[in-house]
């Protein structure tokens, strides 16, 4: 919780410190962006068990200045293992900070994810602190739309973990 307070404090400070630079004369539609992504997969594990999964990840962001924005994402992932009669879901929230350098961007993100524990009996909250780089390819007439790809690394990652890797790769759209 101390980390969340620190992140919130930084967001408020950045907002106050940069508000005059971006001004209030711009319409809110120029400052807010939405987007997200999702995924679907199916296959067979190394042990020969079939699995399926699907996920959705909507985001909303606010441009404090043209290169600097804050926002949050929501996530939901469902996993199914039909050979074992088991399925479970993970869901969470992910506040983020993003700084754009033309089409490249740096992003830091704090994930709070609710997931079953290893024994699959009770649910737990898992935290991830991600830092990474991304690339944004604009499309559309007004330049609002973009296809984005990024790679993030979880600096809190420790084994054993409910996550397969400290790396998170995403491709998503934004408008």
Characterization of this structure:
The chain is mainly beta. It contains two helices and eight strands; from the N terminus they run ααββββββββ. Strands 1-2-3-4-5-6-7-8 form an eight-stranded antiparallel beta barrel. β5 and β6 (about 125-140) form a beta hairpin. Mean pLDDT is about 85; it is low at about 15-20.
Global structural class:
mainly beta
Note the total helix count. 2
User: What does the largest sheet look like?
Assistant: 8 strands, antiparallel, barrel
Global geometry: elongated
Strand order of the largest sheet: 1-2-3-4-5-6-7-8
Low-confidence stretches: 14-22
Helix content: 10-25%
Percent strand: over 45%
DSSP strand tally: 8
Report the span from N to C terminus.
32 Å
- Taking all Cα atoms into account, the compactness measure Rg is 18 Å
Give the SSE string: HHEEEEEEEE
- The overall pLDDT average reads 85
What are the key terms here?
mainly beta; about 15% helix; 2 helices; 8 strands; eight-stranded antiparallel β-barrel
Give a nutshell description of this structure:
The chain has 175 residues and is mainly beta.
Topology:
Blueprint: H1 2-22, H2 28-31, E1 32-44, E2 50-63, E3 68-81, E4 86-101, E5 104-116, E6 123-139, E7 145-154, E8 167-174
Antiparallel strand pairs: 1-2, 1-8, 2-3, 3-4, 4-5, 5-6, 6-7, 7-8
């Amino acid at each position: 919780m101390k980390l969340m307070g620190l992140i919130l404090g930084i967001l408020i400070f950045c907002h106050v410190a940069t508000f005059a630079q971006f001004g209030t004369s711009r319409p809110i539609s120029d400052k807010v962006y939405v987007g997200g992504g999702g995924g679907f997969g199916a296959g067979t594990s190394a042990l020969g068990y079939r699995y399926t999964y699907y996920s959705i990840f909507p985001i909303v962001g606010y441009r404090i200045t043209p290169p600097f924005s804050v926002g949050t994402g929501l996530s939901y992932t469902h996993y199914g293992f039909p050979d074992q009669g088991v399925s479970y879901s993970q869901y969470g929230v992910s506040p983020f900070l993003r700084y754009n350098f033309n089409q490249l961007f740096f992003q830091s993100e704090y994930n709070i994810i609710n997931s079953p524990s290893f024994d699959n009996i009770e649910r737990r909250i898992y935290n991830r602190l991600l830092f990474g780089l991304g690339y944004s390819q604009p499309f559309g007439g007004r330049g609002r739309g973009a296809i984005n790809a990024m790679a993030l690394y979880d600096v809190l990652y420790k084994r054993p973990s409910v996550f397969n890797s400290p790396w998170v790769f995403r491709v998503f759209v934004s408008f």
